[in-house]
Here is the input.
Amino acid sequence: MTYKYLWGSAFIVLGIFLAFFGRKLFNVAVFIIAAVVSAGLILIICYATFLETKTASWVGWLVVSLAIVVGLGLGYLATKLEKPSASLLAGWGGFCAGVLLNETVLYLAGSVALFWCVNIGLAVICAIAAWFLFN
Here is the structure.
C-alpha cells in the first residue's frame, strides 16, 4: 500500500475522535462505517469477478463512482436503522475480538473448526447483546 502511514494516521485520529464523543456521534460512525464497508465490498466483488487489467480506465472509474454512490446510500440507510446497524457493528466487533483471541491463544490448538466456532460465536453473542442493550 503506497500511503499506509497516511491512512493509518487518519483512521487512528478518526477512531480517537469517535471514542471521546461516543453516543453523540453514533450516527456519524454508523454512516462512515457502512459507507466505507459497502463501497469496499462492491469494489472487491467487481474487481474479483469481471474487471481485469485490460479493462478500459473509464469503466474502472465508473465502477468506483457507482460504488461510492451506493455506499453513501447504504450509509444513509444505516443511520435510519440505528438498532440493526448497532447490532451489525457489535457483531463485527465480536468477530474481531474472536480473531484477536485466536491469534493470541487459541492458535495453539491448531483447529480450523475452533477458529470459526469462536469467531462466529462471539459475533452472535455481541450482536444479540447490542440488540437488547442498545439504549
About this structure: The chain has two domains: 1-80, 82-135. The first helix runs from residue 4 to 21.
